[in-house]
Design goal:
The chain is α/β, with parallel strands linked by helices. It has eleven helices and five strands. A five-stranded parallel beta sheet has the order 3-2-1-4-5. It is globular and about 60 Å long. GO terms for molecular function: phosphatase activity.
């Protein structure tokens, strides 16, 4: 993040930044079921731009049994498994292609969604302090999915982290997803509409995300970016303190 000037907008991803990462649920599932570490995320990436996961996050497919079947097909694609295994061969010298792992996609998905409803223990309090200060424009840009009607995850919760944001852009509701440039342009438009008096330019935004390709696109459109590492949101809070000059952590020695 080259600029040291105070940003006009703090823009946050949700999963893995403001709430517990669904990636942790994937890692736990892989470990518990003897699936090679990283394969499930690899299969999601391998299926882009029009795999089941991407279509769900653009709101193009409903979250139903047909979608789960499509996602399972993507995860258990022989081409995906072979490509992943070839990568492992290149890195580790493996030479035998094992059977494609069986993934219980319903269980995995709902575990991911369940864990990502838990506020991050470091970032969530920091965000609330920023909100309470009244000194910062807070916005969110998140890849999301739309739960089926009547599902309990649709029910609002007291103290939902979404409440701290003045602008909340949900991929499944706007029909676009990160890292496609169109949703970054859309976000700029919405931020300027919300705060026309601020004359917001791309360099006035600091964008926090846990996925490299999302940050790469953010940087390409001129945003300042901060990578949030899995399990290291306490470090992100320290970075946020440096950026804002606010006391956000429980450490009284944090720089103001």
């Amino acid at each position: 993040m080259p600029s040291s000037s105070k940003p006009k907008v703090l823009l946050f991803d949700i999963g893995g930044v403001c709430v517990v990462s669904p990636f942790q649920a994937i890692l736990d599932y892989e470990k518990a079921n003897n699936i090679p570490t990283g394969y499930i995320n690899f299969s999601i990436s391998f299926s882009k731009p029009n795999g089941a996961w991407q279509k769900l996050e653009r709101g193009e497919l409903p979250l139903d049994s047909n979608w789960f079947a499509a996602w399972k097909k993507d995860i258990q694609s022989p081409k995906s498994w072979e490509a992943y295994h070839k990568k492992k061969v290149d890195q580790s010298g493996y030479n035998a292609l094992p059977p494609i792992p069986d993934v219980k996609v319903d269980d995995l998905y709902w575990t991911m969604m369940g864990i990502s409803r838990q506020p991050d223990p470091h970032m969530a309090p920091a965000l609330r302090k920023l909100k309470e200060s009244g000194r910062w424009r807070l916005a969110a840009l998140s890849n999301t999915s739309i739960f089926p009607p009547g599902h309990p995850f649709n029910e609002p919760r007291p103290g939902d982290i979404k409440d701290v944001f003045d602008v909340f852009i949900s991929s499944a509701h706007v029909g676009m997803r990160k890292p496609d440039k169109i949703i970054y342009d859309f976000t700029m438009q919405k931020l300027r509409e919300k705060w026309p008096e601020a004359d917001i330019q791309p360099g006035d935004i600091v964008f926090f995300d846990d996925i490299g390709e999302n940050l790469k696109m953010g940087k390409s459109v001129g945003w300042r970016t901060v990578k949030v590492w899995l399990g290291k949101t306490e470090d992100t809070v320290k970075e946020l303190e440096k950026i804002t000059g606010e006391q956000l952590s429980g450490d009284a020695r944090a720089k103001l």
